[in-house]
Design brief:
Elements lengths: L5 E4 L10 E2 L7 E4 L6 E3 L4 E5 L2 E4 L4 E6 L2 H7 L1 E3 L4 E3 L8 E6 L5 E3 L4 E9 L28
Antiparallel strand pairs: 1-6, 2-3, 3-12, 4-11, 5-10, 7-9, 7-12, 8-10
């Protein structure tokens, strides 16, 4: 059985569809822009694009805001903090922080699909300070790029 995410529609999303999966096998539900007018993001620019929805996410889950592959490939539009996390205790309007990595200005209009939402389980950790040395590994302290190309 699927977890239920309750959705509150804000006035500026009155004509927008609820997030929905485009195909039976889709992992992400499409999220549309809820805009009063066109919004243009210049090359190198970014914008928080409103969705017009507030979500009641079940405890133990998060919603991840992810880029749409078509926008990324064709226009260089992506979600800046990929994946953006919407915590289960957040009750504000969900927005997609989009960035234009393309060479041309990109215009978003009301109702355009701007991102996808993935409901994901969250495993909380208990952090404890180590009083001695941590266990060793083959990688050790090798950082960025240390495991090859």
């Amino acid at each position: 059985m699927r977890p239920v995410v309750r959705v509150q529609r804000l006035p500026h999303a009155g004509d927008l569809p609820l997030p929905a999966y485009a195909t039976a096998g889709a992992a992400g539900a499409d999220l549309c822009a809820a805009l009063a007018g066109p919004l243009t993001i210049p090359p190198g620019g970014r914008a928080a694009v409103p969705s017009g929805f507030v979500f009641e996410i079940p405890d133990g889950y998060e919603i991840q805001v992810r880029p749409r592959s078509g926008l990324a490939f064709r226009h260089g539009i992506t979600v800046l903090n990929t994946p953006g996390t919407v915590d289960s205790d957040y009750r504000g309007e969900v927005m997609a922080i989009l960035v234009n990595l393309g060479a041309e200005p990109f215009t978003i209009r009301h109702g355009d699909r701007i991102a996808q939402l993935v409901l994901a389980p969250v495993q909380l950790a208990s952090f404890t300070e180590a009083t001695g040395a941590l266990g060793s590994t083959a990688r050790g302290t090798g950082g960025f790029g240390s495991t090859g190309v």
